[in-house]
Amino acid sequence: IEVLKNKKIVNKVLLAQAYIGLGNAASNNDDKVKYYNLAIKVIDGEPGNEVLLAQAYIGLGNARYTNEKVKDRVEWYHKAIKLIEAKPGNEVLLAQAYIGLGNVRYQGDGSDWYNKALELLINIAGTEVLQAQANIGLGNAVSNNNDKTKYYNDKIKYYNEARIILEKTSNVDNSLLAKACQGLGRNRCVVG
Question: Mapping DSSP to helix (H, G, I), strand (E, B) and coil, where does residue 144 land?
Fold first, then answer.
């Protein structure tokens, strides 16, 4: 990044991509926020950078960032959705924003957002981790409707689907797999 910034010929898109990459790789939210905001500063107002802006906005939402202009992280997801929802080819990014809205339980228990994400991802190769995240979210969102058997069966269905998806991937996300298995364990499920 220093090389990109110190040269007089600055490719703003490359610089923003680098900042977003650093934000994605950062281990703490303060660093994530710093890099996503730097990316936004570099490309904000520049036409043709909607996807990069959406990535930075989703990153800020995931980092739970708010400021004097954005009082709730839900707004970051809405900003991202507004930029990309009508443009084909952004289904994965749109699904990430929907999962973010599900995670903050925007407009209910989050299940509608997780289902919207799954609808987008179902036939897209390489989205197994996002599909598992949405299924775990659905497992967490199942509400008790006085039918204990249905309640537990629904939770188990979603957690088990996440487990199956993750166990089929070549580079399994162990922390996500652990969440799926914990969900199964909390609901007294034994899988074989």
Answer: coil
Check residue 51 and give left, alpha or beta (phi > 0: left; psi -120 to 50: alpha). alpha
To the nearest 5 percent, what fractions of the chain are helix, strand and coil? Answer: 70, 0, 30
Closest to 92 measured CA to CA, from 39, 62, 53, 55: 55
Instruction: Calculate the CA dihedral of residues 166, 167, 168, 173 and round it to 10 degrees.
Output: 40
Q: What is the pLDDT of residues 11-57, one digit of tens each?
A: 899 999 999 999 999 999 899 999 999 999 999 888 889 999 999 99
| Structure confidence by residue, pLDDT tens digits, 142-185 | 876 777 788 888 888 999 999 999 999 888 888 888 888 888 88
Q: Tell me which residue of 108, 40, 116 sits closest to 74, measured CA to CA.
A: 108
Residue 108 has φ and ψ, to the nearest 5°, of 115, -150
Q: How far is CA 63 from CA 41, 92, 117, in A?
A: 17, 19, 19
pTM flag (> 0.70): yes
Q: Are 94 and 112 in contact (CB under 8 A)?
A: no
